[in-house]
Amino acid sequence: MFKPVAKKLLLLAVITVLGVNAFILGKVWLNRSLVVAELTLSERELDMPYHWGMAKEDSSLRLNLAWTTPWLTSSEDDWQYLSRQQQRILRLQQPQFASFRFGSCTDGYQRQQRSGWVLLEFNGQSYQDYLKQAEQHYAVIQQRLAAEAAAELNAGMAQDRLQAAAKRRQEQQQRAEEQWRVAREEATRLFVIDAAADRNLLQQTLAKHSGPTAGQLLLVPADIQLSYTWCQDDKTAKQPEVMVNRLAVESLYVAKPYAQHLPRDANRQHKIRFQAQLRYGRYAEPWLSALTLSGTEP
C-alpha cells in the first residue's frame, strides 16, 4: 500500500504530465486551426538525414529545412564555398538592424544573439539572382579554360605538359558543369531575405514585394546574431550585417504514413526525389501535410 504522501506525489506527477501534454496538444491544435501559408517543397529544400534507413529498428524520420541567404559577393574565389549555399550572413537596412538593439562590439559578437523574425522567400527573385550568378561563373570558367588552352598551344609546350594541362582543364570543366547543374536542379530555392526584431518592419518589406518574380513570402521567427564582420576594426564603411543562426522551427517530424513513401536507401546510391506540402499555422510553426515520392535518380 502506498503511503498518503506517496499517493499525493504520484497523483501530482500524473496531473503534471497530463497538463503538459494537454498544453502542447492545445498549442498544436491552435497553430493548425489557421493556415497562413502553404509551400510545395522538394528534396531541394528538405534534407533527409544521412542515416535514414540504416537502423531498421528506427522508423522515425525528421526532415531539415535547407535555406540560405542572398550572396554578398559573386567573385570566382568565393564560388567553391558559396556554391554549397551555406550562406548565413544577411545585410540589413538601418531600421531593421536597429530594432535588435545590439550592444557594443566589446561585449563580443558571439553573445549578441536576439530573437526576431525573418522574411522567407521561396522560388523568387533571390533564387533567380543566384541562378544568374551561377551561370555567369560557369561562363567565366569556360572563357578562362579556352584562353589557357590557346595560350599553351601558342607557347609550344612539350607534348607531355600539354597532356597534363589538358587533363587539369578537363577536371575543372567537369567541376564547373557539376556546379552549374546543381544550381539548376538541386540547390535550395528557399532564401532568408530580411530580418528584424519588430515584425511590423518586415510587414512593410513584405508589402513592397509583388509581381511575377516575388515568389512566395512568409514571416517566421528566428535567432539572429550580430555578424562577426560588423565588429572587425578595419575602419571601412559597412552596411549593417547579422548572422541568421537558425529558424525557430527547421526540423520537421514526418508522420509514419508519409515516411513510408520514402524508400530506405542505406547505401545512398540514389537521389530520392519527392514533393512535400509544408503548411505554416497561426503561430508561424510549420508541419508536413502531404508527401509524395517523385522517383529516384542514379
TrEMBL record:
Pfam families tied to this protein: DUF4824
Superkingdom in the source lineage: Bacteria
Protein name: DUF4824 domain-containing protein
Organism listed in the record: Alishewanella jeotgali KCTC 22429
